C-alpha cells in the first residue's frame, strides 16, 4: 500500500512539473500586445464631449463677434480690453464644463482599458497621436471603434 502511495506522489509531482512547464512555454510563446486609440475620433464620437465643446465654441464665437462689433464701432482699446476680460470670465463655466466631461471620460476610459487589457491581453494602451504628432507609426491594435462602442453602450 505504501508503494502505491509513493507512486501516486511521484505521479502527482510529475504532473505538476509538466503543468508548470507548459505554462512557462505558453507564456514565452505569447506575444505582448499593444493597443492604441485615436483620441480625435474617440472625442468626435463621444456625444457628451461634443455637446460641451460645441456649446463652448458657440459662446466663444459669439463673444469674438461682439468684440469685432465693438472695434468697428470705434470703442477704445481700454473698452475692448474690459469687454475681453468680461468675456473671458463669462466663458470660464463653459471651459470647466468641457474639462469636467474630459475628466469623467478619462476615469471611464481607465476602466475600459483595464477590462480590455485583462480580456484581450494588452500590456499597454497608447494614444495614436499627441498634438498632431504620431505616437504609433506602425503595428499595434486599433481599439478605437471598440472603445467607442463600449462608451455608447455605457451612457
Write a compact overview of the structure shown:
With 155 residues, this protein is mainly alpha-helical.
Which helices and strands appear, and what pairs or packs with what?
Elements (H helix, E strand, L loop, with lengths): L1 H28 L3 E5 L1 H6 L2 H26 L4 H44 L1 E6 L1 E2 L2 E2 L6 E2 L1 H10 L2
Parallel strand pairs: 1-2, 1-5
Antiparallel strand pairs: 3-4
Helix pairs in contact: 3-4
The domain tally reads 1
- CATH topological fold name: Protein Binding, DinI Protein, Chain A
Taking the sheet with the most strands, its summary is: 3 strands, parallel
Radius of gyration computed on alpha carbons: 28 Å
Q: What is the CATH first-level class name?
A: Alpha Beta
Low-confidence stretches: none
Family: Belongs to the Skp family.
InterPro entries: Chaperone_Skp (IPR005632), Skp_dom_sf (IPR024930)
Organism: Dictyoglomus thermophilum (strain ATCC 35947 / DSM 3960 / H-6-12)
Protein name: Cationic outer membrane protein, putative
